[in-house]
């Protein structure tokens, strides 16, 4: 074979070999394992399950109603992140424990107990379920997974007292008390101190129901006060029965816990309320953020927007309304404390020295009536 022809043949063979190699390479690429499918999206986190227990029915006014309004506000604020529920009319005592355990069995990991009498059951159940977070309203016992929260009702009660002191014609005020614990005694005393700050001769008479919610007893107590000469009433009970009794008798009264202007007719002078939504939003947010801590005590009042005296009646003179607003403003600025000495009890004994401001420990141990309150304090049941 001539040299040139042999050279051309070798070049053709080399080209063929390169082509085959290219085809083999392409074949390896085509035969590679298919790419892995994209990872499935992680399942959405389950919403926080939070439950509330109430000592009375939710109804349309009063203590349990106000707490439930706060629950609804918290659920709306964290829509999709929290699922709430409630149990109403829970008796204080053994039934409280049963309800708490049932709520935990349903998967609730944040539980609010909204009555003082729930305290011992909550302490016990909290000890048995350290993974569950508990919040107790108005109590004083805490644990690593149990907090206490409260409202300073005595602040707006004092404001109501100022109005009552101006509006009374008989000089006698009436107070329907529920259970004789420091929380309630604080409010009776604050109401009287407010009234006597503008009318030193005013006296307050108290009738007890020994129940938080019992409309017939509340009506009976209110009527006894009215029959005894009281013409302006306040209460520490949960239904509108007291203000309705005052309206029927043509006298005056204040709503309690929530806006009762729709129940009091011409008797309604204003409503001393607590807006629990502020605290409930905070507690739920802390759990969702992972910043919730146990062993805490939180007491909010007028400065934080949790307590207020609302829907003041047009029959209150402008100068009286202005006085109330002035004192409220000082409360908001923390320049005015209801319990500032001298505070003297009904027997004439000084309980707080002149110029001294009561702290929470002092207020939490109140077991007396201030000067101007008539009646006896029964033993708490």
If you had to describe this structure to a student in words, what would you say it looks like?
The chain folds into 2 domains: 48-151 and 277-300, Rossmann fold; 153-273 and 307-374, 3-Layer(aba) Sandwich (Rossmann fold), CATH 3.40.50. It has 12 helices and 15 strands. It has helices spanning 3-30, 63-77, 94-105, 119-128, 153-167, 182-196, 215-227, 241-248, 261-264, 277-289, 318-332, 360-363; strands at residues 48-53, 82-87, 110-113, 133-137, 146-151, 172-177, 203-208, 232-235, 252-257, 268-274, 297-300, 307-310, 343-344, 350-352, 373-374. The chain has a 7-stranded mixed sheet, with helices on both faces. The protein has a 6-stranded parallel sheet with strand order 2-1-3-4-5-11, with helices on both faces. It has a two-stranded antiparallel sheet with strand order 13-14. Strand 3, helix 4 and strand 4 (133-137) form a beta-alpha-beta unit. The longest helix has 28 residues, at 3-30. The protein is globular and about 65 Å long. The termini are far apart.
Order of helices and strands: HEHEHEHEEHEHEHEHEHEHEEHEEHE
- What's the count of strands? 15
Quaternary structure state of the chains depicted = single chain
Number of domains as seen in the coordinates: 2
Task: Determine the strand fraction and express it as a percent band.
Answer: 15-25%
- CATH-derived topology of the largest domain: Rossmann fold
Structural category: alpha/beta
Assign the CATH superfamily of the largest domain: Response regulator
Average of pLDDT: 91
Rg, Å, rounded: 34 Å
The CATH architecture classification of the largest domain is: 3-Layer(aba) Sandwich
Helix content: 25-40%
Largest sheet: number of strands, sense, barrel closure:
7 strands, mixed
Distance between the termini: 126 Å
- CATH class type of the largest domain: Alpha Beta
Strand order of the largest sheet: 12-10-9-8-6-7-15
């Amino acid at each position: 074979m001539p040299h040139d022809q042999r050279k051309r043949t070798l070049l053709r063979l080399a080209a063929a070999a390169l082509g085959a190699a290219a085809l083999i390479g392409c074949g390896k690429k085509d035969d590679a394992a298919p790419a892995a499918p994209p990872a499935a999206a992680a399942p959405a986190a389950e919403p926080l399950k939070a439950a509330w227990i109430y000592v009375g029915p939710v109804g349309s006014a009063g203590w349990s109603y106000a707490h439930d309004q706060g629950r609804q506000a918290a659920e709306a604020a964290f829509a999709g992140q929290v699922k709430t529920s409630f149990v109403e009319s829970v008796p204080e005592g053994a039934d409280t424990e049963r309800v708490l355990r049932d709520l935990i069995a349903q998967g609730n990991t944040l539980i609010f107990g909204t009555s003082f009498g729930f305290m011992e059951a909550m302490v016990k159940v909290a000890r048995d379920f350290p993974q569950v977070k508990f919040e107790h309203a108005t109590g004083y016992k805490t644990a690593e997974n149990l907090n206490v929260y409260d409202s300073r009702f005595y602040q707006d009660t004092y404001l109501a007292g100022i109005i009552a002191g101006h509006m009374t014609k008989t000089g006698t005020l009436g107070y329907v008390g529920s259970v004789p614990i420091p929380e309630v005694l604080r409010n009776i005393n604050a109401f009287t101190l407010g009234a006597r700050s503008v009318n030193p001769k005013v006296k307050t008479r108290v009738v007890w129901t020994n129940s938080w919610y019992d409309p017939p007893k509340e009506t009976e107590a209110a009527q006894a006060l009215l029959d005894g000469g009281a013409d302006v009433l306040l209460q520490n009970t949960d239904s509108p029965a007291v203000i309705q009794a005052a309206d029927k008798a043509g006298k005056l009264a204040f709503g309690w816990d929530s806006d009762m202007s729709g129940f009091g007719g011409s008797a309604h002078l204003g409503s001393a309320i607590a807006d629990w939504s502020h605290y409930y939003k905070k507690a739920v947010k802390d759990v969702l953020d992972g910043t919730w801590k146990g062993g805490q005590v939180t007491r909010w009042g007028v400065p934080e927007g949790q307590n207020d005296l609302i829907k003041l009646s047009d029959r209150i003179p402008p100068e009286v309304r202005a006085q109330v607003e002035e004192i409220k403003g000082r409360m908001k600025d923390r320049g005015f404390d209801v319990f500032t000495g001298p505070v003297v009890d009904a027997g004439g004994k000084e309980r707080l020295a002149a110029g001294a401001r009561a702290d929470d420990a002092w207020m939490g141990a109140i077991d007396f009536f201030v000067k101007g309150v008539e009646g006896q304090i029964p033993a708490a049941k």
